[in-house]
Amino acid sequence: MRTSGRCRLSGAPATYTTRPARAAGAAKFQQALADRGDEFAKISEASKTVGGLHHRFGIGDGYVLIVDEWESVEQFRTFMSDPDLQAFIGSVGGAPEPPEVIVAQAISSPDEF
Fold first, then answer.
1. Lowest-confidence region among 11-15, 25-29, 83-87, 107-111
2. Residue 74: inside a domain, yes or no?
3. Domain containing residue 26: CATH number
4. Which of the residues 7, 11, 86, 96 has the least number of beta carbons within 10 Å of its own beta carbon?
5. 53-80 pLDDT, tens digit each
6. What mean pLDDT do residues 11-25 have?
7. Residues 6 or more apart from 44 whose CB is under 8 A from it?
8. How large is the average pLDDT for residues 20-31?
């Protein structure tokens, strides 16, 4: 599901975002994870200092799915607008155009886990 939304987590508001992003190829992206892991880790640590809570990648046919949890949408957007981060994303296989970010309301359901 390509959605993001807001919900309450441990008494604090949280924002979930998923971003399907076109990529040059799963192999190139996976190689970048292996070759440049220290850079990915540095970015992860930086995100935690400005509201990032969780982060995960998934790979599909011609795209990378990025799933994040942030304290707020504003913090997410500010972090992602960094030109150096955008250059890094491009260098590891991200498509030149911005990824689609979809915002939706997260709701609780009896079958969630």
1. 11-15
2. yes
3. 3.30.70.100
4. 11
5. 889 888 887 778 888 888 888 888 899 9
6. 59
7. 52, 55
8. 74
Strand pairing of 63-70 and 52-60? antiparallel
Cβ-Cβ contacts under 8 Å for 79 (sequence gap 6 or more): 46, 47, 50, 51, 52, 70, 85
| Domain around 82 | 5-91
Alpha helices in the chain (DSSP H): 26-35, 37-49, 73-80, 83-91
Total domains in the fold of the chain:
1
Q: Is residue 97 part of a domain?
A: no
113 part of a folded domain: no
pLDDT given for residue 47 in this prediction = 96
3-state secondary structure of 95: coil
Answer yes or no: are the C-beta atoms of 75 and 11 closer than 8 Å. no
Structure tokens at 54: 């969780």
Q: Using alpha carbons, list the distances in angstroms from residue 7 to 12, 67, 72, 84.
A: 8, 15, 10, 30
